[in-house]
Amino acid sequence: MPGSFDTYDDAIAWLIEHYNLERQLGGVGVDAPTLDRMRSLMGVLGDPQNSIPAIHVTGTNGKGSTSRMLVELLGAIGLDAGSYSSPHIERVNDRIAIANQPLSDDDFATALAEIAAVEPFVVDAEGSPPNYFEVLCAAAYNWFAATAVDVNVIEVGVGGRWDATNVIDGEVAVITNVGADHLEIIGPALGDVAYEKAGIISPDSHVVCGETEPELVDIISAAGGREFWLRGVDFDVLGDRLAVGGRVIDLFTPYGRHEEVFLPVHGAHQASNVAAAVAAVEAFFGRQVDDELLSGALASLTLPARFEVMGRQPLVIVDGAHNPAGARAAAETLFGDFSSDKAPVLVVGCNRPHEPGPLLEALGAHRFGSVVATAPDWPRAVPPDEVAAAGRELGLEVQIAPSVADATDSAVELAGSEGVVLIAGSLYVASEARIHLLE
Fold first, then answer.
1. Left (φ > 0), alpha (ψ -120 to 50) or beta: where does 203 sit?
2. Beta strands per DSSP E along 68-214
């Protein structure tokens, strides 16, 4: 019966019926969706997204990390922060969280049931019901309003202008960066990508812009907003030093400096994400964040599947890098911050429209001792033999594993107890590897 589920599994089965957009993204001749159906769905629910102030986050890379940092900072200040993100890391529940804690199975099933109850009243001109993204996003907005969280931190899925999340007018709009990703949907040029990401900016938004390329900044700033902060001018990283278990950074915002801030995650790129998150919180409150509060908030920060260490003998790292820019950052972190006498082992898989060849080059695959090609259980996964063929064209010796679990086991055996394994290419690959390793 629409509007009620006997079990969590029933709710997930109903949700999977809405995979329609996921199966199409990256295909030939796919039209970008509009917000018409999402606006209709939210209207039937009573527009719950308008009842809570929001920080809206987009960007080619770093938006997931920045969003988690924002939630930790807001929580340290005393606010209950609801967050919506995609894709999920371990379970679908991950996408809807409060204080970075996913909804329980029962709450998640209830949240979906409330969308199922109104779905019959929401179809577009072609008679299509809401898609997978729209269902989850609507469930998040509706749940956060019903539980009366203090602020929403909303991560864009793709682009921004037409993304399902963009039925809000964020008090703060964060754009971490602009890169070459999803060009078949929001491209073909970087200027087009910047224009689409700037679509989250409303007249009342305080914009925190991490992109610094002048032509792209001009496009973003032209979208308006009540105030505009630019990285390198209004906020930025002043110092970034490798430390045991993470990094120590110094940064500044229009409200002042923050020095000797310990960040318990890996990768120099995370310093820029912290700077954007701190700037966004200070823009939201209109004042500087206390240094002690800032340090306390970040001390407990975890970033699942973002260069996350999952094992020590061998050292096993999972990273959701899914485009060349993210892959380069992962490679720089691995070869710059983690030294080993033995060449590491790479497990790699990717989803369309990403091509495995450029991803392997960006990961520096020639620097790995072994490469294992695989594919996640996802509609747009590139078959492992195609990933392997791309590697062989680059002169690599590549093994094939049919599943991420098999690939992970093979890589651990190849590395030996003193070796290093990097699992990358897609958040879906990272997710399946995490689950397997945790089990």
1. alpha
2. 81-84, 96-98, 101-102, 151-155, 172-175, 206-209
Q: Which of 121, 119, 103, 101 is nearest to 111 (CA)?
A: 103
CATH architecture, range 8-299: 3-Layer(aba) Sandwich (3.40)
pLDDT in tens, 235-274: 999 999 999 989 999 999 999 999 999 999 999 999 999 9
3-state secondary structure of 102: strand
Among 44, 94, 99, smallest CA distance to 75 is for 99
Question: What is residue 32's three-state secondary structure?
Answer: coil
Q: What is the pTM of this model?
A: 0.92
Domain ranges for the chain:
8-299, 308-438
CATH architecture, range 308-438: Alpha-Beta Complex (3.90)
pLDDT tens, residue by residue, 153-165: 999 998 899 999 9
Question: Phi and psi of 172, rounded to 5°?
Answer: -125, 135
Higher-confidence position of 35 and 31: 35
